[in-house]
Amino acid sequence: MLEAQLDVHKALVEEASVRFKVAKDHLDQLQKAGDTVPQSALHQAQGQVVILQAQLRVKQAESRVAEVRLKHARQRMIQLGKADHGHDHDGWWCQEHGVPEHICSLCNDEVAAKLKKEGDWCRIHDRAKSQCFKCDPKLYEKFEAMYQAKYGKKPPRPPEEEFKK
Ligand SMILES: [Zn+2]
Ligand SMILES: [Zn+2]
After folding, report:
1. Do residues 8 and 80 both lie within one domain?
2. Which end of the chain is more exposed for a tag (fewer CB within 10 A), N or C?
3. Which ligand does the CA of 102 lie closest to?
4. Closest-approaching ligand to the CA atom of 120
5. 68 with 79: CB under 8 angstroms?
6. How many CB atoms sit inside 10 A of residue 103's CB?
7. Does residue 141 contact residue 148 with C-beta atoms inside 8 Å?
8. Quick one: which ligand is closest to 159's CA?
9. What is the H or E stretch that residue 148 is in?
């Protein structure tokens, strides 16, 4: 909605600047024509230019205010978005599986293929051996430490069934 308002302001600035330019060109022509132009016409043209210039400045100022408002509104939305996600941290952590998302062998097929090739695979639980908390719950500590190093606190623990055989 604010963006639509900004567009309106920009259109008004554009319109005012066109009108100002037309008046200015008209005045220039009168001035070039010199003595043949009556003084009254010249004064009238000058008056128009002054008025339209003032109008243009007002529209420009209004547009700038709208722009600043939009910027602030955007910042607020970004902050709200961050607050909304809470522990999510832009998806760095896979809460379901208790490892960073980019190395999660359950969520990321490429990672899974790579680890399988390297022989790091638990066939029973179909995930990386090094990430299989079902076989060894202690493995989780390493990933928990990675989260703690990044965020300065412990991550939300994955569901308990991830630790059960
Ligand atoms: Zn995952
Ligand atoms: Zn396993």
Report:
1. yes
2. N
3. 1
4. 2
5. no
6. 17
7. no
8. 1
9. helix 140-151
9 token code pair: 């302001």
90 Cα to the center of ligand 2, angstroms: 28
Question: Are 144 and 125 found together in one domain?
Answer: yes
Boundary (domain end) residue, out of 86, 102, 134: 86
Would you write out the chain's pLDDT as a tens digit for each of its 165 residues?
677 888 888 999 999 999 999 999 999 999 888 788 888 888 999 999 999 999 999 999 998 988 888 888 887 776 665 544 444 446 899 999 999 999 999 999 999 999 999 999 999 999 999 999 999 999 999 999 999 999 999 999 999 999 998
Distance 24 CA to ligand 1 centre (A): 66
Residue 73 and residue 108 in one domain: no
Angle 160-153-94 (CA atoms, 0-180°, nearest 5)?
A: 45
In which domain, by residue range, is 106 found? 92-163
Which amino acid is it at 65? V
Same domain, 39 and 97: no
Provide the 3-class DSSP secondary structure of residue 8. Answer: helix
Which ligand has its closest atom nearest to the C-alpha of 125? 2
Indicate if 69 and 99 belong to the same structural domain.
no
* 70 residue type, one letter: L
**DSSP state, residue 92:** T
Residues 55 and 70 in one domain: yes
